[in-house]
Specification:
The chain is α/β, with parallel strands linked by helices and about 290 residues long. The chain has one domain: Rossmann fold, CATH 3.40.50.10010. About 40% of the residues lie in helices and about 15% in strands. The strands form 2 sheets. The protein has a 6-stranded mixed sheet with strand order 3-4-5-6-7-8. It has a two-stranded antiparallel sheet with strand order 1-2. Helix 8 links the parallel strand 6 and strand 7. The two termini are about 20 Å apart. About 35% of the residues are buried.
């Protein structure tokens, strides 16, 4: 099964390129994506690595480097599956990382004009700020389509009638044409109390500042503690859903250490459709 195969490849890459063991002053080891000061976090992370069963292959990596590599690996996994779902969600898709500004997409193109005005007026800049200029970790965009593609099965549009002249899906309607933002995905290698709010802020700005269809707004994490994932996942109205890179393994690891508080929170998020596995994400993009 392709999705299972690609998930295993993702886990192998994460284990070999991102995960290494740290040691405390007693010599006890724990994976680097756990919180050194939290025993539950250390035990759960260790359990996840053991259940995945792939060797870890590095000595150390900085948090910033780990975050960027996590984005790249998640983007590669999404593309490996979503490219095969053209029969469910046809389109010419682009997958971008490295914090692409949303002003390059049709729903948010007006923000670049706003930025040009604000930069020339300090009073306006202090009043408005720059939070509206979101730069997602991963972007999935769809190219607009030509009239030939639209008319491939029967005549739908033509150059004569003054109709269907404003939809961004039609290539002929915008000069120059702009891609349509289909998904904005935030990647959090770990979650600390101060790292979840910027994801929510970005999501709210995507919702408030769009002119056109709202893109999927998602987050992916490797955080081992459900109570910290909850800071991102609980509630509705901003994020579509949060996805864990190894949810079945997370469930089993928590069951193994017999931590009812963490298991209750995890169950709440899963049953409430606020937390899913990374394998669900490409399928959710096809909705």
């Amino acid at each position: 099964m392709e999705i299972q195969k690609q998930r295993q490849i993702l886990h192998k890459k994460i284990c070999s390129q991102l995960i290494y063991n740290r040691h405390d002053n007693t010599g006890e080891s724990y994976p680097n994506f756990s919180d050194s000061g939290n025993r539950s976090s250390r035990k759960i992370a260790k359990g996840i690595v053991e259940i995945i069963g792939q060797p870890i292959g590095i000595n150390s990596i900085s948090e910033q480097t780990a975050g960027g590599l996590f984005e790249s690996l998640i983007c590669g996994f999404i593309q490996s599956i979503f490219d095969h779902l053209g029969h469910l969600r046809p389109g010419n898709w682009r997958y971008l990382i490295s914090h692409t500004s949303i002003s390059g997409f049709v729903q948010y193109a007006h923000l670049s004009r706003l930025a040009d005005i604000v930069i020339k007026d300090q009073a306006l800049a202090s009043a408005i700020g720059t939070d509206y200029m979101v730069k997602p970790d991963i972007v999935i965009a769809r190219h607009p389509v030509s009239d030939e593609e639209i008319n491939c099965k029967r005549p739908i549009v033509d150059d004569i009638a003054h109709i269907a002249k404003y939809s961004p899906l039609r290539l002929a309607n915008y000069k120059p044409p702009l891609p349509i933002l289909h998904a904005s995905i935030s990647c959090k290698w770990t979650i600390r109390s101060d790292r979840s709010q910027n994801t929510r802020t970005e999501a709210l700005n995507l919702i408030r500042n769009r002119k056109g269809p709202l893109p999927h707004i998602m987050a992916v994490t490797a955080e081992p503690l459900p109570t910290r994932i909850a800071a991102l996942a609980l509630g509705t109205g901003d994020l579509d859903c949060v996805y864990h890179f190894a949810l079945p393994e997370l469930i089993k690891a928590i069951e193994t250490i017999n931590n009812p508080d963490q298991l209750d929170m995890l169950t709440t998020m899963i049953d409430g459709n606020r937390l899913r596995d990374i394998s669900d994400l490409p399928l959710d993009l096809a909705i």
